[in-house]
Amino acid sequence: MNRTAHRRLLGGLAAGAAFALLLTGCQSQRDDGDPAASEPGAASDVDSTFVFGSSSDPSGLDPAFASDGETFRISRQIFEGLVGVEPGTADPAPLLAESWESTEDGLSYTFALKSGVTFHDGTPFDAEAVCANFDRWYNWTGLTATESLSYYYGSLYGGFAGDENALYESCSADDESTATINLTRPFSGFIASLSLPAFSMQSPTALEEYGADEVGGSEEAPEYSEYGEAHPTGTGPFVFESWSPGNEVVLAANPEYWGEQGQVQEIVFRVIDESTARRQALEAGDIDGYDLVAPADTAALEDAGFNVMQRDPFTVLYLGFNQTVPELQDVRVRQAIAHAIDRESLVTQVLPEGTEVASQFIPPVVNGYNEGVTDYAYDPEAARELLAEAGFADGLELTFNYPVNISRPYMPNPEQIFTALSSQLAEVGITVNPVADEWTDYLDRMRGTSDHGIHLLGWTGDYNDTDNFVGVFFNGYSNEWGFENPELFSALTEARQIPTPEEAASTYEEINEQIAQFVPGVPLAHPAPSLAFDPRVTSYPASPVNDEVFNMIELSE
Amino acid sequence: MLRTIGRRLLLLIPTLFGLTVLLFFWVRALPGGPAAALLGERATPEAIERINEAYGFNRPLPEQYITWLGKLLQGDFGNSIETRRPVLEEFVNRFPATVELAIISLIIAVGIGVPLGYWAARNHGRLIDHLSVTGSLIGITIPVFFLAFMLKYVFAVQLGWLPSTGRQDREIDATHVTGFFVLDGLLTGELDASINAIVHLLLPALALATIPLAIIVRITRASVLEVVNADYVRTGRAKGVSTQVIRNRFVLRNAMLPVVTTIGLQAGLLISGAVLTETVFAFPGIGAFLAGAIFARDFPVLQAFVLFIAIAYALINLLVDISYSFIDPRVRIQ
C-alpha cells in the first residue's frame, strides 16, 4: 500500500513537472519568437517577418500554368510583368517595360524595357528574355496547351503555334532593351492583360535548366515540373525559399531588387483553409493578415482593434435569367423582375461594407462604364403592371437556383442574398421554388445543363478590360443564359478587336446599353472584398485587382 | 501465433479487394465532377469535356476500375487532381502529422479515461461517480468542430497560452528525420523542437480526444462494476485474497477486455475524426488534406484515403485481438 502511494506521488510529480515544462517551453518560445525575427537583415527595428493566412496552397509556383488567386498572390511577390497596375487602381502602368508604343493598326507593340534588371538567378532581363517568354507560351503543345494548365494564355491569345486563331505572331529583340511583339489581329485588352501574373517574365535560363515545360509524367494527370515545384525565378522583390505543401510557402527579400525593398524581409504564406480558423489565427497573433474576411466578422474585428480594409470593388454579382424557361423569354417578365428588386436594401442588409449598387455588368472603374445606362429603379408597382401585361396578373412561379456553403469575393453569403431577393420577388407576386446546390454541383448545373431558372452568380475581374466582364458573360450562346442574340454576340467580338481601349470605350458604352435593354439578368451589386490585419500593419497596398506586392507593406512594430 | 497473424493478414486481401469495388463506384456516384472544381466558374462545357477526357472520367466505369486497380497493385495511387502530385507522396508527407496527433489523443483518452472510469466505479453511487457519468455524456454529445473552436478561442485567442495553428513554430528551424516532429527532436537532441511540437499538438489532441475519452470512461466504469460483482471476485474475497490482488488481477485484468476493444475502435475513429480537427487547427495532416479533397472532388485522394482507413482499422483490430490473448489466456486468436 505504501509503495503504491509512493509511486503515485512520483507519478503525479512527474506529470506536474512535465506540464510545467510544457508551459515554460511554450512561454519561452513565444517570447523569443519576435526578437529572433528582427535579427540582422531587418530594415528597421520592426519584426520583418510578415505572415499571411492563405486559404489554400498555390496550385504550383509557375504562374504561367496557373489561374487561381492564391497562386497569383505568391507569384506577384516573385515575378513582375512588362506591365503592372497603377497602385490602388485597375489601370495598367509601366513595370518591367518603361513605356510602349503601338502601330496605328494595333498589330505591333514596341516595349522599351527597364535596364539593369536581373532575374534572381543572375540572368539579365532584356529583350531576348521577353521574346523567350512569349515564344514559350506560344509554342506550348499537348498537355501544356490545355485549359487546366495554360488557361489564361489559351483563352486570351486565341491558341498556340499552328492554331489559325492564334493572336500572337512573333517577337523580335530589336536591341537589348527594346522588344517588339507582333499580333495577327488587334486586341484592345492586350496591354491590360499583360498585368496578369500568368504573363510575368520568368528567367529563360531557369525555365530551361529546371525543365519548366516538362509537366506530365503521365498523360492522365499533369504533374508539376521541377521548375514549378521548387525554382520559380523572376525579377520581383522576393525570392522563393521553400514550400511545404499543405502548410506554408516562405519567401525572402531579394537583396538585388532594382526597386524599393521595403520593411518586410520574409513572407510566410500559411495555409489555413477554414475561414473561422483564419480569423482565430489573426486574433491569436499567429498571422499578420488574411483576405476575404467574412462580412459577419468585419465589425467584430474592427471593434477588437484590427485593421479591416476594403478593396475597391472589382466584382459584379448578378441575378441571371435562363431564357430556355418560357416565362423568361418575355422581356416584360425580365423587366418586371428588374423593377421588383430593391438593390439598395440588398446592399445595406446583406452585403459587406464598401459594396456599391450595380447598374450594369461592369464595375464603375472599368473602361466603357455607361453613366447614363437604362436603369430599372425599384418600383414594385411597375413590376406588377409588367407582369400583368405579360399575362401573369395572378402570379408567376419561377425556379430560383443558388449555391450553398460557399463564399466568393462577389458573393460572400449566397443563402442570405437568396432570402432577401426571394422575399422582394414575393412582394410583386413572384413565387420562387428554391433549388440549392453545393458549389461544384451548382456550377455543373449552370454550365452544363439548362436545368435552372433565375440564379445567382458573378465574377471578379482579372485585369482592367471590359471584355473580361461582359465578354466573359455574353460573347456567345451558353447554357447559363440560354439565349441567342447574334447582334450582341458580334458586337462583343468586334469590340474586342478595337486597337486601343480609348477607342473601345464608346463602343462598350453602347454595348452596355444594349445589354441593359435586353435584360439578360439583373446586375445587383459590386461587393467589396475585405482584408483584415494585425494592428502593427499600418499600411497595405490594397488593390482592386489583387495586385498587392508586400514590399509596399508598412509595419509599426 | 505468428502463423495466425499471417493468416489474418492474408485474409485482409479479399476484404480490401471487395472494398475497392464498393469504394470505386461509390465515389463515382457522387454528383458533380472534379473538372468543375478545377476550372472555376467560367469554364466552358468543352473545357470540362477535355479535362474528363484527359483524366479518363468519361470512359466506362468498369474500364476505369480495372485501370485504377491495376495501377494500385503496382503501388500507384494516381495523382491528386488538385495538387497534381502523386497521392502516395502526399500521404507519406502528411501521414506522420496525423499519426502523431492520433497517438497523443489516444494517450490523453486512455491515460485519463481508464483511471477515471475505474475510480468512478469504485465510488459507485457517490458524487464523483455521478459527475463522471454526466461529464462523459457531455463529452460524447459535444460536436468536435464546436469543441475545437472553443478550445482555440479560450487557450489561443483569449489566453494566448497555446498556438492556434500548425505543427511547429518557424523560428524553431528543426531538422526533420522521420517526419514525426516530436520524435525528430528527440533523435537530433533538439529538445526544444520536440517540446514546441507537443505544445502545438495539445489543443488539437485534446479536441480529438474528447469523444474517445468520454466513451472509455463509460465503458471502463460499466465493465469494472460488472466484474466487481462477479462470483469469482466474491469467492476470492471470502477466501481472504488480498485487496491488492483482487483489484489488479481479478478486477482490472478482467474488466480490461471490453475496454481494449473500445480503445481499438476509437483509435480507428481518431484518424477519421482528424478531418475536422485538423481543418480547424490548420494542422497539415491527412485529415486536412481529405477535407480539401472532398470539396474538390479529388477522386484519387478520396479513394486512397478510404483504403488507407480500412487498412488501419484491420491492423488495429488485429492488434486488439493479439492483446486479448495476453490479458486473458483463455482467449487464443484463431
From TrEMBL, chain A:
- Single GO term (MF): peptide transmembrane transporter activity
Q: Which residues cross the membrane?
A: none
Which positions fall inside the Solute-binding protein family domain? 92-478
Keyword hit for Transport: yes
User: GO:BP terms for this protein?
Assistant: peptide transport
Any single Pfam family the record assigns to this protein: SBP_bac_5
Please list the coiled coil stretches: none
Homology family: Belongs to the bacterial solute-binding protein 5 family.
Instruction: Identify this protein by name.
Output: Peptide/nickel transport system substrate-binding protein
From TrEMBL, chain B:
Q: Where in the cell is it found?
A: Cell membrane
Which BP terms in the Gene Ontology apply to this protein? transmembrane transport
Pfam family name, one: BPD_transp_1_N
Q: Which UniProt keywords apply?
A: Cell membrane, Membrane, Transmembrane, Transmembrane helix, Transport
Can you name a GO cellular component term?
plasma membrane
Provide the topology term for how it sits in the membrane. Answer: Multi-pass membrane protein
Q: Which residues form the ABC transmembrane type-1 domain?
A: 95-320
InterPro entries listed in its UniProt record: BPD_transp_1_N, MetI-like, MetI-like_sf
**Entry's transmembrane regions:** 101-121, 133-155, 197-217, 304-327
Family affiliation: Belongs to the binding-protein-dependent transport system permease family.
What name does the UniProt record give this protein? Peptide/nickel transport system permease protein
Native organism: Agrococcus jenensis
